[in-house]
Amino acid sequence: MINTQETIKKTSNYIRNSATFKIFSIGILVLVLLIPTSMIRSLINEREHRKNSVVDEISSKWGNSQTITGPFITIPYKNFYKDYKDKTKYDLHYLHILPEELSISGKIRPEIRYRSLYEAVMYNVNLDIHGKLKIPELSQLNIEDKNILWDKAFFSIGISDLRGIQERIEIKFNGSVYNCNPGLTTTDLASSGVGTLVRSLRPEGSNTFSFKININGSEQLNFIPVGESSNVTLRSPWPSPSFNGAFLPTSRAVNNHGFTASWKVLHLNRNYPQYWVDNQYKIEPSAFGLKLILTTDVYQKTTRILKYASMFIIFTFAAFFISEIIKKRKLHPIQYILIGLAILVFYTLLISLSEYIKFNHAYIVSALSITIMITGYAYGILRNKRFAYTVSGILAIMYLYLFIVLQLEDYALIMGSVGLFVILSSVMYITRKIDWYAIETN
């Protein structure tokens, strides 16, 4: 019985005094704290989903992201055949002809709309579109001229959300003026849009066209380069565009006062010809354009810095553990848990405050609050002002470092690597004279 009690006592003392076991325990606590970290990430995702729902609701009343397809000409023709009773019948097919030259220029006027805590980027854009078009030789398509319904030639403009159209669209085609109506002859090239019959189409020679579009949209504006040579030029006072899609601008200038961007796309750059029958080709993959980004998206920023939560916990625990070694004062695992939870509270404070005030201000308030809390707790449990000041300095440096990483998005990886190198080097320097074997035997 006595031997059993001595064994239990020795085991208890070993667990209490063993640095190896303490490090192992701290590692377990870090893994445990990943559970509330995951819960915070879910909270951020939930808030972001709520924000996206509100933005979608606003966009549905103003106009969703817009994709402009065209213009292009659709001409129906008859394809005759013999049925099983040897009777002559015909099917109606559609010849789609894309322009030789297409030029689009416009000015995007952005506007921020608010709903509750959230904001959405809307825009109005005036597009000036002109170009020319030529009917190909029909013999190349095995179509007889007499089978073509020239009087049904339809001038089409694909517009993804017709609710955004603000003014009547008038087409000037070969000197004649036509008013557009909603709807397309077919959905082979675009799912929705406007168009008109053009009686002044010339089967031979060039056909010229021009028109203007005044349209509302939200966040994104895209174009599909249907021209043999497509030139698009856009300008806007919005300072943070994101150029995306199949083609990037050939030239662009972005500053705090806005941006200008120009694209030039040739028919050789895409995977469809200038004319075809029915739905032989899909043109959506060639879309290009831009997105008006809100750089104050607090949810994306908070998600980015949440990735550093484990690093914060590990290095803060390391500071307290080294203090245990140096000051010969033992901390209970519950105290480590409370410190780790305090670090995680920073993220909930940040996401909640940033919905009401500017993100940078919310960051400062949250970081300052948590630093004061942990510093006060460190002094309360160790009764050592020097260590409390040290903890305060460590947290201040880490939060400042994280803020800098957040601002330098393009250099986040190298900043993170350098920061970890500096911190690890500092820990190795501070602990260089500690005799870990002596600690184990004490």
UniProtKB/TrEMBL annotation:
The keyword Transmembrane helix applies. InterPro entries: Uncharacterised_IM_CreD. The chain crosses the membrane at residues 21-44, 305-322, 334-353, 359-380, 387-405, 411-430. GO terms for cellular component: plasma membrane. The keyword Transmembrane helix applies. It holds the Pfam family CreD. Keywords: Membrane, Transmembrane, Transmembrane helix. PANTHER family: INNER MEMBRANE PROTEIN CRED. NCBIfam families: PRK11715.1-1. This is Inner membrane protein. It comes from Desulfoprunum benzoelyticum. The lineage of its organism: Bacteria, Pseudomonadati, Thermodesulfobacteriota, Desulfobulbia, Desulfobulbales.
